[in-house]
From TrEMBL:
Protein name in the entry: Cytosine-specific methyltransferase
Keyword line: Methyltransferase, Restriction system, S-adenosyl-L-methionine, Transferase
UniProt cross-references to InterPro entries, sorted A to Z: C5-MTase (IPR050750), C5_DNA_meth_AS (IPR018117), C5_MeTfrase (IPR001525), SAM-dependent_MTases_sf (IPR029063)
Taxonomic lineage from the root: Bacteria, Bacillati, Cyanobacteriota, Cyanophyceae, Oscillatoriophycideae
Annotated Gene3D superfamilies: DNA Methylase, subunit A, domain 2, Vaccinia Virus protein VP39
Broad EC category: transferase
Catalytic activity as recorded in UniProt: a 2'-deoxycytidine in DNA + S-adenosyl-L-methionine = a 5-methyl-2'-deoxycytidine in DNA + S-adenosyl-L-homocysteine + H(+)
Amino acid sequence: MTYKFIDLFAGIGGFRLGFEKAGFNCVFSSEIDIHAREMYLANFQEKPDGDIRKINHKNIPNFDVLLAGFPCQPFSIAGEKKGFNDIRGTLFFEIAKIIEYHQPKVIVLENVKHFKNHDNGKTLITVLNTLNNLGYTTSWTLLNAKDFGVPQNRERTIIIGCLEQIQFDFDKLETKPQKKLKDILENEHEKLEYLQEDEYTLIENPKQQLSGLIFAGYRNKNIRKKGTRPNTEHLSRVHKQPNRIYSSEGTHPTLSSQESSGRYYIYHNGKVRKLTLRECYRLMGFPDSFKLIGSSSKLYNRVGNSIVIPMVEEIAQQVKKQLLEKNFDSPTPLFKPRQMSLFDFNLFVS
């Protein structure tokens, strides 16, 4: 059986690619950014609908799974009440309206790592409780791209809800051996942007961090040193990512949606250079056949705002196995949705 999904806040289609690789079929998409919609059209021959607030949810075709990498928009009274009263005026409310009308079998939501801490945890609780009120059993966790065969340390919050009162088990996701950054690099060619030796400083005996990162050096730029511990100036938050250099023998830090210049520098084969656009897209799991159109600044923004495809594909495979193809006559215990409190939340994240 081919299951159908809709792709909300679709971006350039990372969620879609992952689910299509698992055999799902997309029947509707929505994205407000003009450039992202153009890229989506170029790669899927389908132009997403625009502003989700202007879409008549009654006109959306029937579907089994709802996908949404929704923005972390402020919830003004998050956690004070229940259901729609907590989320009116937010973009998540638009998702909830579609869920309420269509009652899809499964919901898969994605957000940034720190979503769980937004408004002291109240936003996550509100999202979970809203889904519970709509009849869904929910589970959530943090997943890291580096555990799914992509050499990027990129953690994301994943929330999955099931209408059949079966709780998704994230522990059943199959991880892959960690790759090194050098495994996805393009072959040497004349268009690579190298730094001159006087433009950077390498550190002695760089050590690999638990994240897989190997901080190898830094660009010789003026940086703020006040308030930092000795010998940590180039790793401090005030010394922003564009000045850091990482070894190709390790993983790469999270690609940022705010980095429009592509200032990602690596140490490889005794030289320091920028990652290419294609390498950035490879770090997200996009195939080389994926069409890159538009200015480089927009392309860097788009890739930094996307989702890692191999991770999504594994989620899709397990959604199919655990939730859609489940034998509901089996004696597996069911989980009854209930409201989560801040007390529950603090126990979970502590």
